[in-house]
Design brief:
It holds the Pfam family AstE_AspA_cat. This protein is α/β, with parallel strands linked by helices. It folds into two domains: about 240 residues, Zn peptidases (Aminopeptidase, 3-Layer(aba) Sandwich), CATH 3.40.630.10; about 80 residues, OB fold (Dihydrolipoamide Acetyltransferase, E2P) (Beta Barrel). Helices cover about 20% and strands about 35% of the residues. An eleven-stranded mixed β-sheet has the order 1-2-3-4-6-5-7-11-9-10-12, sandwiched between helices. Strands 8, 13, 15, 18, 20 and 21 form a six-stranded mixed β-sheet that branches. The longest helix has 17 residues. It is globular. About 40% of the residues are buried. The N terminus is likely disordered. Bound molecules: 2-acetamido-2-deoxy-beta-D-glucopyranose (NAG) (6 copies) and zinc ion.
């Protein structure tokens, strides 16, 4: 689901403008409302909270997005790195929100010596509404048309009804993206040319290293996943010298449990009915292996779905009800097609 973010790319082309932070004068739940964020106006050595006024929804209801900024030492705004954390762009994908909250709890104790800036929007699109308005505002009025971001991490989960392990999309063609992806130590690392208009790809197209992290189930907070991504964000902040390094040499990611692939292939069901999974997430599959049955209401098998290649089950439906054309499972593998060297979604 990418409708919101498709529009980001369009607004990135509008005229360049720079302003001071614009306080509207409103205060919401004790938090000042702004319509434009300029990091030079944010207090250094502190964590600041804002609501970004992004205009009005249908019916004139004002919409405000929470923004958190951990700004480090005064000069590190220029000399340190600026890391963007976003979650909740698809309203039902919630694990990343808790990652951002716990990272900011931690930064409370580190912000006075922080070497750089962390700028976060924990719930980019809570209502799933008004995509145009949100995209314009986030790109221009929080990220300053990318001038206020050096590295971006966009946290997602699969859509409701699907299950996967911890994985990421990473466009290895831009320097530092591979390093970011490996610092995640994901279960699956999907080398990928990106989804046009996604936050990640909009950043990457603008030469800002970014990855999309997919963390488990929609509508669930899973502590295991949250902790793994929390540790990852710490490794990134360490790698960017934002926090004091725990390592004497650059951290060597442990990729012993990471399945690195270029290709994901969907296996859709022809029929509507009930999908019975024969292979679970992260289990290996061989070409031609039966991976799912689709049954009708009487229990008859309408179709058996087979793996298109040797690889691994990567994402599959936990909701057994299935519509014609919907995914009965997605397999990841390395395609031998040279066109897939930088990543394919089949
Ligand atoms: C955004 O930045 C690009 C250059 O990186 C520039 O061409 C464009 O005009 C800017 N847009 C806005 C809205 O500032
Ligand atoms: C923030 O303000 C400074 C100083 O006024 C200016 O140089 C800079 O371009 C502004 N940045 C943005 C993103 O508007
Ligand atoms: C600041 O916000 C006010 C109202 O919220 C708006 O009228 C004004 O155009 C804004 N100024 C800038 C420079 O964005
Ligand atoms: C702060 O970050 C910058 C940019 O990564 C780096 O060059 C510099 O060495 C860092 N400073 C400290 C004290 O870590
Ligand atoms: C959380 O995810 C892990 C896999 O990372 C899984 O083993 C565990 O059962 C999940 N916990 C809950 C409460 O869903
Ligand atoms: C797939 O290819 C990549 C290099 O593009 C390699 O690092 C990885 O180990 C391969 N994965 C598998 C499962 O063979
Ligand atoms: Zn998503």
């Amino acid at each position: 689901m990418q409708t919101f973010s498709r529009i980001l790319a369009v607004f990135a082309l509008l005229a360049a403008r720079t302003f001071a932070t614009n306080f509207t004068g409103d205060v919401l739940n004790g938090v000042p409302v702004i319509s434009y964020l300029n990091l030079t106006d944010v207090p250094s050595q502190a964590i600041s909270r804002y609501y970004l006024r992004v205009g009005e929804l249908n019916g004139g209801i004002p919409l405000h997005l929470p923004v958190m900024v951990a700004r480090g030492t005064s000069k590190s705004l220029d000399t340190g790195k600026k890391l963007s954390l976003t979650a909740g762009i698809h309203g039902d994908e919630l694990n990343g929100i808790r990652v951002i909250q716990t990272i900011f709890d931690q930064l409370q104790t580190q912000v006075s010596t922080l070497n750089g800036t962390v700028i976060a929007i924990p719930t980019v699109n809570p209502g799933g509404n008004s995509a145009r308005l949100l995209a314009y505002n986030v790109w221009n009025n929080v990220w300053g048309n990318k001038s206020q971001v050096d590295v971006g991490l966009d946290l997602h989960t699969p859509s409701s009804g699907d299950e996967s392990s911890l994985w990421c999309y990473a466009d290895f063609r831009l320097p530092y993206v591979e390093r970011l992806a490996k610092l995640l130590q994901p279960d699956t690392l999907k080398i990928d040319v990106g989804e046009p208009g996604s936050i990640e790809t909009t950043f990457v197209d603008n030469k800002i290293p970014a990855i999309t992290v997919e963390m488990g189930l929609a509508k669930r907070w899973n502590t295991t996943r949250i902790n793994r991504v929390y540790d990852f964000v710490n490794r990134v902040m360490d790698d960017l010298y934002i926090i004091p390094s725990k390592y004497t040499t650059p951290y060597q990611p442990d990729l012993s449990q990471t399945y690195i692939v270029t290709t994901v292939e969907d296996t859709p069901s022809k029929y509507g009915g009930f999908v019975e999974r024969l292979v679970l997430v992260d289990q290996p599959v061989t070409k031609g292996q039966a991976i799912a049955n689709v049954r009708n209401a009487f229990g008859d098998i309408l179709e058996t779905i087979y793996s298109p290649d040797d690889g691994r089950m990567f994402q599959s439906p936990i909701d057994p009800t299935i519509e014609p054309g919907a995914s009965a499972g997605q397999i990841v593998y390395n395609s031998t097609d040279p066109e897939c060297a930088d990543g394919c979604v089949l």
